[in-house]
Amino acid sequence: MCYSEAGIDAIKRALRAGEAAGTEAVQIKAKLVAPPLYILGTNAMDKYVAAKWLELAIKTIQSTIEGAGGNLIVRMRPKTMSETEEQNLAQLMAKANAENQEVY
User: Fold this and answer.
1) Average pLDDT score over residue span 8-34
2) Separate counts of helices (H) and strands (E) for the chain
3) In 3D, which of 30, 31, 17 has the Cα closest to residue 66?
4) At how many degrees (to 10) do helices 47-67 and 5-20 cross?
């Protein structure tokens, strides 16, 4: 975890580079769960195409982070999610955000 300005800027650059790795049809979005945990997501008609673009985004983020002297730990590879799993993830993110707000 990095709280220095240079580290935070490197993380922002890496996440933006990952988002830019998507296409108009498969737009990649990076979301903060709670530092240092982020998720990438997309909506696509073909789950295999979506997974391919998410993998590319992860590689792009990793190379950007490593180029800045950091490292990336991928906790979960891309996978499709049911509506229930998406709702559970949204609840987890809301809880983490609330806990993060209490700290600051």
Assistant:
1) 93
2) 3, 2
3) 17
4) 150
Pair 57, 49: CB distance under 8 Å = no
DSSP result, 11-52: HHHHHHHHHHTS-SSS--EEEEEETTEEEEE---S-HHHHHH
pTM of the shown model: 0.79
Task: Give the best-scoring range by mean pLDDT among 2-11, 36-45, 94-103.
Answer: 36-45
Contact 41, 31 (CB under 8 A): yes
Give the model's pLDDT for residue 62.
96
Q: Give the whole-angstrom CA distance, residue 54 versus residue 10.
A: 20
